[in-house]
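Weekly puzzle thread! Below is a chain. First person to post its structure in token form gets bragging rights.
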Amino acid sequence: MTKIRDIACLSQENVISRLKQNGISCNDFTRHFPLNGVEANCFCISTPGNSCIFVLLYYYKSHQIGYWTNPEYRGKGFGREFLKTAFKQVIHKHDPSYVLARINADNTASEKIVSACKFKVMSNLTHQKLYVWYRP
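Winning reply:
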């Protein structure tokens, strides 16, 4: 597993700029996380030789998280460790009593990732599952 080199809290605009600087398409990212009307902290993790391959957004008004991985790095085991690291910073910074994550019902990779961070299924709908993490 690649060791995590740095994690920085960036605005969404800065993440898009960083993606472009590293020749990574931001279309997939902006499709998942539109910029309009969103108040969030955006965390970006880099590994040696690679930049901005995992991004976590924490929407602090609604206590929700969303995350994105550069498509070329999906399915390689990065997501679980990256989310654990970024999630610890969110918890430390904002001190929420709970955090929500909505996941498409067919996204088994994301289900495994949030489960590794101790999220539990709150509701299981046809098209999406709602996961919740409670402060111990």
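Puzzle host: Confirmed. Bonus trivia for everyone else. Strands lie at 6-10, 41-47, 50-59, 64-69, 98-104, 120-124, 128-134.
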